[in-house]
Amino acid sequence: LFVLFFTTHEELQTLDVDDAFFNTPEDIAARALKPQGGVNFIRTFKKQEEDQAVNLPPNLDELVKNATYVQSPDNLVWQYFYNLKGSAEYPFPGGVFQWARYRINGTGLNETEKIFSESLNKHENTLTLATLRISSNGLGQPHFHFNANEMGYVISGCGQVGVILSGVTSNFNIGIGDVIFFPVGTQHYIKSVCDEDLLLILAYSTGNQLETLRMKDYFHGTADHILAQLFFKEQAEFQKFPRAAK
């Protein structure tokens, strides 16, 4: 079972091997592939009524006798593969992240992860993936991303989501199998409301280092006297908000 993300908001265009083959004139396919028997052998292929990209043939064991392959060299494999489950965990109050992402200068990545990281950064319109686990009643605090749309899929648990825009706030519940989407620059938060952890797979539409601003950071980064004017509260009142140790 796979969860797949594609970097397009248009209708997805896909060309399968069998479709390409059957849409190629017989003589052209024969000249390109050069099989024994030539064009007569090409004519022995019959297009199936069902899409074989989805439906495997019922007599698969009779058709395939050897499905082994040789593992490619590590420097090639790790351009396209990342062991997310075995990667470092990045905890935050209430949960933990694991990332398959680009990091500037490979900061915090091992050698194989650096290969994957650089591969992401070399390609346009790529994706950064992560798993987000929020403990029961935990909170992924309000934040937004400067350089990426975000899409998520709920693996387990249940939660509440808030999307905060100028003049509009949307709140809704999420559960297993639901998909959520946050456009770039949209402030949002996610809260777990079940007894079990809320687990999501997240995709970000960037191959660069993800740029995120959280509420506690921009609130604490604003001068007390400015906050006092905005909220009509004594300046000293804003000392009540705890600041993270540097």
Which whole number gives the mean pLDDT? 92
Structural class: alpha+beta
Q: How much helix is in the residues?
A: 10-25%
Strands ordered across the widest β-sheet:
1-2-3-10-5-8
Task: Report the CATH architecture of the largest domain.
Answer: Sandwich
Rg on CA atoms, Å: 25 Å
Question: Largest sheet, described in full?
Answer: 6 strands, antiparallel
Q: Residue ranges: pLDDT <50 for 5 or more in a row?
A: none
CATH superfamily label of the largest domain: Jelly Rolls
CATH class of the largest domain: Mainly Beta
The number of distinct helices, counting runs of at least 4 residues, comes to 8
Q: What global shape is seen?
A: elongated
Span from first to last CA?
42 Å
- SSE run: HHHHHEEHEEEEEEEEEHH
Number of E-state strands:
11
Write the layout of secondary structure elements.
Blueprint (H helix, E strand, L loop, with lengths): L16 H6 L3 H8 L4 H5 L17 H4 L10 H4 L12 E3 L2 E6 L10 H12 L5 E7 L4 E7 L4 E7 L2 E7 L2 E7 L4 E4 L4 E6 L5 E7 L7 E3 H6 L3 H8 L15
Antiparallel strand pairs: 1-2, 2-3, 3-10, 4-9, 4-11, 5-8, 5-10, 6-7, 6-9
